[in-house]
Amino acid sequence: MSSVASHSGILVIGGGLVGACIAYGLARGGTAVTVLDEGDVAFRATRGNFGLVWVQNKGVGLPAYAQWSRDAAALWPAFARELQTLTGIDVHLEQPGGFYLCFTEADCHERERSLRDIQQAAQGPYPFQMLGRSELRARLPAIGPDVVGASYTPMDGHVNPLKLFRALRAACLHHGVRLQSSARVERIEYGGDGFTVTTQAGTHRARRIVLAAGLGNAALAAQVGLYAPVVPSRGQVLVTERLQRFLEYPTNKLRQTDEGTVQIGDSVENVGYDDGTTFDVMQFMAQRAVRAFPLLRDVNLVRAWGALRVMTPDGFPLYEQSRECPGAYVATCHSGVTLAAAHALVVAPWVAGGEMPAALAPFGSARLRGAEKHAMYVN
Ligand SMILES: Cc1cc2nc3c(=O)[nH]c(=O)nc-3n(C[C@H](O)[C@H](O)[C@H](O)COP(=O)(O)OP(=O)(O)OC[C@H]3O[C@@H](n4cnc5c(N)ncnc54)[C@H](O)[C@@H]3O)c2cc1C
Questions:
Q1: Distance, CA 228 to ligand 1 centroid (Å)?
Q2: What is the residue with the minimal CA distance to atom 27 of ligand 1?
Q3: How far is the CA of 304 from the centre of ligand 1 (A)?
Q4: Is the distance from the beta carbon of residue 331 to the nearest atom of ligand 1 less than 6 Å?
Q5: Which atom of ligand 1 is nearest to the CA of 19?
Q6: Could you tell me the pTM of the whole model?
Q7: Which fold has domain 231-311?
Q8: CATH number of the domain at 4-50+163-229+313-368, out of 3.90.550.10, 1.10.300.10, 3.40.630.30, 3.50.50.60?
Q9: Is 80 exceeded by the pLDDT of residue 1?
Q10: Judging by DSSP bridges, how do beta strands 202-211 and 4-13 pair with one another?
Q11: Is 257's C-beta closer than 6 angstroms to any atom of ligand 1?
Q12: 87 with 170: CB under 8 angstroms?
């Protein structure tokens, strides 16, 4: 008979960015945590993302998401400092504000309308500016003539997402989190006094579990009375060789990293579980990047990849505790970098047994029941 590991603390299922942030937040609050992760064979948005801490234009159709994103971004500086103090890893957070580049006047008008709607609906400050060509050129001297204007908000920024993930894992280990890889969860059973979780590598029991398995949440949620109809949305990303610093701000279409490379992205494609790359999409993104910043014309590309976003039907996050199986929680989103600090500092105390924060209440699954169309959204 195989042995059963009993946990007095919480099992987090999924060790990507969302699971790592929640595990870290739980452990820093004194909860014993074990993370069960499928391992290197899994789809992992965490290892393929664009690294933006992005607030701009989030919340169209759900003002609470604008506030959640803005408040999450505001938690980031202290969070980054905390990770560095604990682990020595600088995640290279910069929050100088960010630009959305417009190639047509119509795009600028649409952008302004959309940001104004969000500003009016959001509680609290939601600053933004629309910039014409000459104002934009003063802020981004390398901008190309095809860019007619941009929106700017001071709330946006970026980090090095791989250093973030490394720092989170180190911080988890510092606080005694047990990280178990090659442990794909196959089955979860609820027995009134807790959960029996069966993985490839053994069986675990715990009174609380958190489903943070990205795309894996869709199948796991149904086993504990939760509903998480997430689907993949592919994004392709290109990376250039290292360049002298020419871009002091992140933009929606490209950003210069702390290492000097330029990340160009990211497509939004509905192609199922295919995380490959395609020539036509890469060509389109490269050409658009050269239109935005002509100095990129002669620069070498050194890497390209595809990765799968974790999308709910309306594109907004999902946070919920099961009514049928109390003690089972689900947490998923398509902006796990932006929301990282909030997942550690706000979501974790809730799944540890605290009151649900008011900020999370709009993100239950009731809004998704009957939703048929999946939003295809970026960042
Ligand atoms: C191209 C692209 C660009 C992006 N750009 C940004 C950006 O600029 N800013 C931003 O905020 N966000 C961005 N994102 C989104 C961000 O990367 C994700 O929100 C975040 O990585 C989601 O983390 P996750 O932990 O939910 O999922 P994942 O990273 O997919 O991790 C899921 C984990 O669960 C595990 N797992 C799955 N099933 C099981 C199972 N049954 N049992 C055990 N473990 C399991 C896997 O092993 C995996 O480690 C981008 C994503 C993509 C793809």
A1: 14
A2: 214
A3: 18
A4: no
A5: 25
A6: 0.96
A7: D-Amino Acid Oxidase; Chain A, domain 2 (3.30.9)
A8: 3.50.50.60
A9: no
A10: parallel
A11: no
A12: yes
